[in-house]
């Protein structure tokens, strides 16, 4: 299958769950308030933190694990402890959030967030099966399974959100989506004969620990601003910021993650020649830029033409910063593609410096939020640029500097347009 077609299917596979989360957040925002969305955002912070320790590091190395006996044994153990531990962790998160509310709100909020406790189980169950399908080239089926799961989830979750007028609909939607996707990929793996591919293996535990540290730091770098904004600027500010992030970054981050997924597979067929690696990485970064440019216009159009009248004036401040958040997803395309390169070259620990550099900017984002969310959005863009530049330096001879220069010019032009329009 052609690389660009695989990238398109991989983008769909990534866009669908993020788009589902964004759409669900918007539906909940329309029927509830920034306060309730903020509470749900706190719960999602807990879930994404958990995934940074479990799902994300395994996804980074799954394509190398599923073809070896040691790797498959590791994944079976991972599914067991991640399912049980993840459920217990999310129950603790729900409990802690409930303690901050009145008794009536405590009962209702606990019930609304409870389905999130089962999400880690079905997320980790689908990881190995999805990696097998991707290695065998079934990108189209994986993206189709995501789309079908999203439709099923919306059919089940949206009525719950509208009828309950709470975040229960969002929790149910996420759980149904992960459950349906696991059932679809499991069935496909059981019925296909070409889902085992021999690739270069690696020691499972060592690789997992390296990528776990990287994913945890990446989560801290990416979410520290939300934690600080929620802790110091308040739950309402966190709700506004989270909705803006869901609208502005869902498409861009999904495209970047998709490019990284295809790149991981492509690198298994490339040796240690860094010029060849640079060529492969550059091709994926270029594809990411094109897909990002194609997605930006619809995102902005939907934000200001469709969502503004639906959400009303209480969400105006969130929608105003969406253009800057969209620009912030441009440098993240390069950052996402750097991690597979570090793994391929057996220098995963070197990648840790990039999220550390981004983490240093998080307090500035929170301080900016005290003044306005608009200023905070520009600080987010600055953080993503810092992370991308750090990754370029760490990639050394494999760094795609030509594509980075094009990306920099695109950021400058886009930012100038935003300033000219008063964003």
Short note summarizing the structure:
The chain has about 425 residues and is mostly helical.
Oligomeric form: single chain
Give the low-confidence spans: 196-202
Tally of helical segments = 17
Order of helices and strands: HHHHHHHHHHHHHHHHH
- Report the sheet-strand fraction: under 5%
Determine the structural class based on helices, strands and strand pairing.
mainly alpha
> Helix amount, in percent?
over 70%
Q: Find the count of extended strands (DSSP E, 2+ residues).
A: 0
| Major beta-sheet overview | none
The span between the termini is 42 Å
How many structural domains in the coordinates? Answer: 1
What overall geometry do the principal axes of the alpha carbons give? globular
Compute the average pLDDT.
Answer: 79
How would you characterize this protein structure?
- This protein has 17 helices and no strands.
- With 423 residues, the chain is mainly α.
- The protein has one domain.
- Helix 2 (34-53) packs parallel to helix 10 (235-267), helix 9 runs parallel beside helix 14 (353-359) and helix 10 (235-267) runs antiparallel to helix 11.
- The longest helix has 38 residues, at 274-311.
- The protein is globular.
- Mean pLDDT is 79; it is low at 196-202.
How are the SSEs placed, and which strands pair?
Layout: H1 3-31, H2 34-53, H3 55-65, H4 69-98, H5 103-113, H6 119-135, H7 139-164, H8 168-191, H9 204-233, H10 235-267, H11 274-311, H12 316-320, H13 322-344, H14 353-359, H15 362-371, H16 373-395, H17 401-420
Helix pairs in contact: 1-7, 1-8, 1-10, 1-11, 2-4, 2-9, 2-10, 3-4, 3-6, 3-9, 4-5, 4-6, 5-8, 6-8, 7-8, 9-10, 9-14, 9-15, 10-11, 10-13, 11-13, 11-17, 13-16, 13-17, 14-16, 15-16
């Amino acid at each position: 299958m052609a690389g660009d077609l695989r990238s398109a299917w991989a983008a769909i596979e990534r866009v669908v769950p993020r788009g589902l989360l964004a759409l669900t957040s918007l539906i909940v925002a329309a029927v509830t308030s920034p306060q309730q969305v903020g509470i749900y955002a706190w719960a999602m912070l807990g879930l994404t933190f958990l995934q940074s320790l479990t799902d994300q590091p395994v996804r980074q190395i799954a394509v190398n694990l599923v073809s070896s006996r040691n790797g498959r044994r590791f994944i079976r153990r991972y599914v067991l402890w991640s399912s049980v531990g993840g459920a217990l962790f999310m129950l603790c998160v729900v409990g802690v959030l409930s303690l901050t509310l009145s008794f009536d709100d405590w009962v209702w909020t606990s019930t609304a967030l409870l389905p999130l406790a089962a999400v880690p189980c079905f997320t980790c169950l689908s990881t190995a099966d999805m990696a097998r399908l991707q290695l065998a080239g079934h990108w189209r089926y994986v993206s189709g399974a995501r789309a079908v799961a999203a439709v099923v989830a919306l059919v089940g979750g949206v009525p719950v959100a509208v009828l309950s007028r709470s975040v229960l609909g969002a929790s149910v939607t996420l759980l149904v989506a992960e459950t349906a996707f696991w059932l679809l990929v499991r069935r496909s793996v059981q019925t296909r004969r070409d889902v085992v591919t021999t690739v270069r293996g690696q020691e499972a535990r060592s690789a997992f620990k390296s990528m776990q540290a990287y994913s945890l730091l990446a989560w801290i770098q990416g979410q520290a601003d939300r934690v600080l904004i929620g802790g110091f600027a308040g739950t309402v500010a966190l709700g506004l910021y989270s909705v803006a992030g869901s609208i502005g970054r869902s498409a861009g981050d999904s495209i970047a993650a998709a490019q990284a997924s295809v790149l991981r597979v492509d690198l298994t067929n490339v040796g240690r020649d860094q010029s060849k690696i640079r060529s492969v990485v550059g091709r994926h970064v270029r594809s990411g830029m094109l897909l990002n440019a194609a997605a930006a216009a619809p995102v902005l159009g939907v934000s200001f033409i469709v969502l503004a009248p639906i959400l009303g004036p209480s969400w105006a401040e969130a929608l105003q910063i969406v253009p800057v958040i969209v620009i912030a997803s441009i440098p993240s395309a390069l950052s996402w593609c750097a991690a597979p390169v570090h793994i391929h070259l057996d220098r995963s620990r070197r990648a840790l410096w990039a999220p550390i550099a981004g983490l240093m900017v998080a307090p500035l984002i929170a301080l900016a939020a005290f003044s306005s969310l608009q200023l905070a959005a520009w600080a987010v863009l600055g953080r993503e640029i810092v992370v991308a530049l750090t990754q370029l330096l760490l990639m050394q001879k494999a760094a795609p500097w030509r594509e980075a220069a094009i990306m920099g010019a695109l950021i400058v032009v886009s930012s100038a347009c935003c300033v000219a329009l008063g964003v």
